[in-house]
Amino acid sequence: LSESIETRQKLNPQLGAGVGLPVNPAGDADKDQLSLTLSQPLRLSDFGRREAVARLLSKAADTEQKLSVLEFTQSIYLSYAKLWILQEQKRFLGEQRDRARRISEKVNTAASRGALSKGEGGLFSAEYKKLSAQLLGVEADSARERANLLRLSTFSTSGGSLKSPEKSLKISKDTLLQGLSEGELPIQSRYALLTKVASERERLARRDAFPAFSPQLSYQRTEDGGSFVGVGIQFELPVFNRNQGEILRREGESSAARAKSAYSRSDAFREEVSLYLQGLEALLRQGETFEKDVLPSLFGALRSYEEQFSTVTGTVLSVWQARRELSNAQLESLELWNRF
Questions:
Q1: What is the pTM of this model?
Q2: Three-state SS for 227?
Q3: Are 225 and 34 in contact (CB under 8 A)?
Q4: Of 118, 198, 266, 299, whose CB neighbour count within 10 A is largest?
Q5: Which pLDDT value is given to residue 224?
Q6: DSSP single-letter state for residue 294
Q7: Three-class SS of residue 30?
Q8: How many beta carbons lie within 10 A of that of residue 128, not counting itself?
Q9: CA separation for the pair 158, 138 (Å, rounded)
Q10: CA distances from residue 62 to 57, 65, 113 in whole angstroms, order as listed
């Protein structure tokens, strides 16, 4: 927006003043002279081109502001989602640690009677300690993420339980790809606008290669009361600086903007978006499979092994292995969130 204002503004008028003192007087020319000059520097681009660029920059500023707000809200969403993941990890690990403690007590009791070996008794004791250490790590990560979310949103989440964030797609794949084909996606509109801005700024730089000129209005007054009014013009001689650096810079920006805009409307970009959507849909299906099939099955298997162990028909290794598989599956299902 500031660039828009700077582009639109004209150069300031200039006021000059001087006093002429006679050096080699001759006749009436031995009087002191006072002169004032008022001039207005102008560029060819001041006549329409700069105003057009300024309007485009203003429009681009509004678009970039919306994009920045969107990126900011998404940063808050991602931070919240990470904090929720850590909350769930802490809950899962806490449940598994309590389960390991209970089984460890049973195994140690059986080992003291000689029914089990000390090695089998040490499995769940070590597992309990390992889960306790993992919980400490999750608590540390959670504290850091709470601090990050507090910095972004200024809202404290300490002492509260977070609800699961929304993870479903807000738009269908077909609708998105149709909008992509018709060039109606916001990213395509943004690139098209930035291309116009870059192209107009390149034209502006080329227009400014012509020398600026300054119409002048002058007034002179002599010591004996005589006065003169005059008009004139002053202009630069484009001997050294013909705005070459600015033209080259704007040419590069315009070329890059055109390339991005062209890619956003190409079949390659359509395929790229389609592949990202396929990956996201696969991740969503994978997460649903974990939630509906994998975790319930492992919970059931663990309960079955625990019941068998309680009735002395099962082995402690089966319980330990089932508990390990369940713990890994729970953490893996949560890690899918980070990939969404």
A1: 0.74
A2: strand
A3: no
A4: 198
A5: 75
A6: I
A7: helix
A8: 20
A9: 15
A10: 9, 5, 76
Contact between residue 123 and residue 309 where contact means Cβ atoms under 8 Å apart: no
Q: What is the largest CA-CA distance in the chain?
A: 135
What is the chain's alpha carbon radius of gyration, rounded to the nearest angstrom? 38
- Whether residue 333 contacts residue 287, with contact meaning beta carbons closer than 8 Å, is answered with yes
Copy the structure tokens of residue 188.
């395509």
Handedness of CA 56, 62, 68, 70 (dihedral sign): negative
Look at residue 30 in the predicted model and tell me its pLDDT: 64
d(CA 106, CA 307): 12
The amino acid at 337: W
CA dist 259 and 76 (Å) reads 32
pLDDT at residue number 25: 66
pLDDT at 112: 74
The per-residue pLDDT for range 36-80, each reduced to its tens digit, is 999 999 999 999 899 999 999 999 999 999 999 999 999 999 999
What single string gives the DSSP state of each residue in 130-183?
Answer: HHHHHHHHHHHHHHHHHHHHHHHH----TT-PPPPPP-S-SS-HHHHHHHHHTT
The pLDDT tens digits of the residues spanning 198-241 come to 999 999 999 999 888 999 999 988 877 778 899 999 888 888 88
CA 274 from centre of chain:
22
Q: What is the pLDDT of residue 314?
A: 65
Cβ neighbours for 194, distance < 8 A, ≥ 6 positions apart: 60, 257, 260, 261
Helix axes 186-207, 49-112, angle to 10 degrees: 140
Answer whether 60's CB lies under 8 Å from 199's CB.
no
Burial bucket for residue 227 (CB in 10 Å: 0-12, 13-18, 19+):
exposed
Could you give the CA distance from residue 13 to residue 216 in angstroms, rounded to a whole number?
A: 10
Sign of CA dihedral 270, 276, 280, 283: positive
CA distance linking residue 327 with residue 294, whole number of Å: 12
Tell which residue, 247, 65, 281, 93, has the closest CA to residue 172.
281
Stated as kind and residue range, the H or E segment containing 269 is: helix 267-289
